[in-house]
């Protein structure tokens, strides 16, 4: 797919601005789903161009009294995300502040604290010496020995500012480590500020041992301590709270308090494990009406706590952590015209929850109900996965085959390829490589036909078309698994056809010989035992003494 940003604008906007997904995850999803290839930097620049930066707009100084503008700034709320480039430029370009109006009778110099004055009076971005950026590189690489050497070579500079090195024009723009932590930034930040947001390591101790201190951002926050608390670094926090390093009660005159930040950041989740049992008749009726009108089931809802990715959505809670009657009410109430809503609930039903042991009958009943609403069984979910893939990867073994058959009866095509271009039968071989379930799954996926005895034998001969086809189209790591499963399907269908169909005559010697030869091949390939009826066993044994059998075909199959 060419880079037609307009074609994917709406989906990128929903993933980034509404669902708050990281840019790296969005990039991988769009590449897998649409073959849309672009760098993370290109995504960030496009979001900026579309006006979708993830930060709150700067509030005008005229919206609140002047005294409160400095003393009551709630930096611990506005800084929960990494500072975006648009916000960084506000510190560098005083020309962008023309929109701020101030009464003529007020002395403008009194509006700003010394911190803001220093930042706004900069005519150009802070120029950081190369050796400071090299020291920052050692910090980010967690190379304590290299850092200590550079500190000794540049005595007296350990507390110099490093500017904004993670901006678009910065040396460390798009640095992978920054994507894994949240740090508050300003042009005067120091090495210790950034190190305290990283996982606790030797660089923090090296910096502290040589007298490194954190900076104070303009609203009055101890940046090193703030970043350590924000990223849950308990050992770093303990080191910073050593007397003389950080002020445990915050800086004088500032509203930010370390204890307040730690408490608000670690509030336990409010959950209700028995929420479904507490609904009365009127509430159930209201819920049914809302769903019938197309209510979004992916809204956030904290019910039963579990580790699944969708655990904090009402959809997951309703399917897996409610009563069977409530789950049926919700699924029955979804309108057929809600294609996307039906698709999402189908993907949820085809998955599983490690905290729930559902009865197969409940799942099968609910899946049938959704499929009867006319849903397209080829629709991808938000991660580019089809219902067939979801079923193979996450459905319990107890009703996996039945669910696969249901999906294919309603239009799912096992020959379709996933977002990565992998054929469904190859995924089967990989997912069930270590179990005998691959035989049953392949049995469900291959259209039914009546193979002859010669076709069964052809599946193990090294010079036949089917073996050449397997070698040319199946990856080497799953080739033996696929060949074994294919042999299991063909031999089972041949035995079904010859033994379970009504017969007007007894089996002749040739047919008995074929049965015995195929049973021998299945045993060598470690395929599950085939069950015969009692009458047929007697029929075979009656003439067994007259049979002669010599195995003539090699078996290039790795037994389990």
From TrEMBL:
Q: What InterPro entries does the annotation carry?
A: Ankyrin_rpt (IPR002110), Ankyrin_rpt-contain_sf (IPR036770), Clr5_dom (IPR025676)
Start and end residues of the ANK repeats are 383-419
Domain Clr5, residue spans: 1-53
**Alphabetical keyword list:** ANK repeat
Q: Which PROSITE patterns match?
A: ANK_REPEAT
Pfam families to which the protein is assigned, alphabetical:
Clr5
The keyword Transcription regulation is assigned to this record: no
Q: Where is the composition biased (Acidic residues)?
A: 72-81
Annotated region (Disordered), positions in chain? 54-83
Q: What is this protein called?
A: Clr5 domain-containing protein
Q: Which organism is it from?
A: Plenodomus tracheiphilus IPT5
